[in-house]
Predict the 3D structure of the following.
Amino acid sequence: MSDSTLDRLFGFRNAFDDPVTAWLTGITVAILLVAPAIFVPLLRIKSVDAAGRSEIRKRYLSWLVITPMLILPVLAGAAATIIGVAILSLACYREYARATGLFRERAISATIVVGIGFVTFAVLDHWYGLFVAMGPLAVAAIAIIALAADRPEGYIQRVALGTLGFLLFGVCLAHIGYMANDPGYRPIVLMLLLTVEANDIFAFLSGKAFGRRKLAPNTSPNKTFGGALGALVLTTILTAAIGHFLFRGTPLDGWPQLIGLGILISGVGQCGDLMFSSIKRDLGIKDIGATIPGHGGLLDRFDSLILVAPAVFHYVAYFKGFGFDETTRIITGG
Amino acid sequence: MKRWRLQPARDLGLPLGERLRSLKRESGLIDRTARLFWWSAVRVYFAVAHRLSVKGREHLPTKPPFVVVANHASHLDAMVLAAAMPPRLWNCVFPIAAGDTFFETPVTAAFAAGLLNALPMWRRNCGSHAMRELRERLVGEPCGYILFPEGTRSRTGVMASFKPGLGMIVAETDVPVVPVYIHGAHEAAPPGRRLPRPRRIELRVGPALRFADQSNERPGWRNIAGRAEDAVRALAGR
């Protein structure tokens, strides 16, 4: 392995080489510190009851824990980022499997865990061929493993749930990890996390401000057209502003491309949110898990991220590629 | 087109502490893998340190549902019974353990639920509700229980009479109740002793009893407890 590869994988000293990384980290930390100064007086004025106040405090404290868990691996290096994404994939799959009942199909679950292991290896290795191949191969493996029980009743359901689970958490999420094969991945991943989470907050706030018509009352009664449009505008402005500094000197640095990126993050992010609302409605449950106090499960928090990850990956890759100049197959060689 | 049957985990959405104590707890790959290693190690321990022998192995249950009832005079009892089961039953057998001993602190609860797969029985208020939940799970899942119907660990090693709670779980069902007498566990690790001594332990397993004909009411419960007690005592005297 060359020095530049090792630097990319473990070089936490280079964390702030790109000033945009430092800016994004600083802004995030600042938002977390300033947030209580805004919501504490606001709660007084609006006279929120005790239950609501403790709910908001729980949410905020959870953010204080989650944020470093998201940012620190990204700053620490590509290896930590990729392992972090793998852990997130496994944890999300676990919640999904418990919510859908797929966890009772142990053979399928084990296949998916092994599949996520292979995907993570492909990402670490910078082996795009295997990364792409894992989609169809894992689907084939799930379909074959499910045969072993010789129980045709419910076969389609088991295989379909397994396939959806693997593609969402094994493949879609892993695209965030794959971004780390580019030496300049830090600001891109940080921007992705920041804008996707900001998108949720923008949708909530603009929904409160001028949300009237319901967007999809059967799927998610609290979402409005006003909220969706407000988030679309605000997230696009935020993304384009960050992207302008981030992608300076690349083919992505033009307003049409940057606005396209913003619309993609906001639109696909909100669709991801709706997708998990649909899944929860279908299952008849309110939260997918109880992993994060005040938020519900990991999937209740990161639902928007899952569909955005591959979309942004391929959009950015179309213009500037991910790690094209880097050594590939750093472990397997060849 | 058939409708899909989606059944979320029965303990979904419970915070971790409550989940460990829930009678509805369902385990996944992580717990199962941990348990496989744990029971294998426990099995080796009993074979080496206590020269464990099983008389009447052919009577041990082979598939759920079942209830194993035994005398209780040592903390080793539940472990030796579970470890002696065929490995494919390790994940569907639940020792019923005293909630106030094993599920009070988070650490012991994690150990009892995660590794032992124990379900808590709160002795102060083990009302009919908890019994009904256990009964539904036994038949519906199906699964197996390890139960000590004396209700407590004997301090002297002498067996006490069985409480009727066992009857509330199995009356009017065709679930086999397997009587076992545990010989030697009290000598190896009596109550109050921290670490067990290397003493021989023998399990004596008797043929299964069935109580489909016993009414699910107080007289039926007493009858069931009495017959199960007699079966264990008969094994003790052999």
Summary: The radius of gyration of chain B is 17 Å. The CA atoms of residues 57 and 205 of chain B lie 6 Å apart.
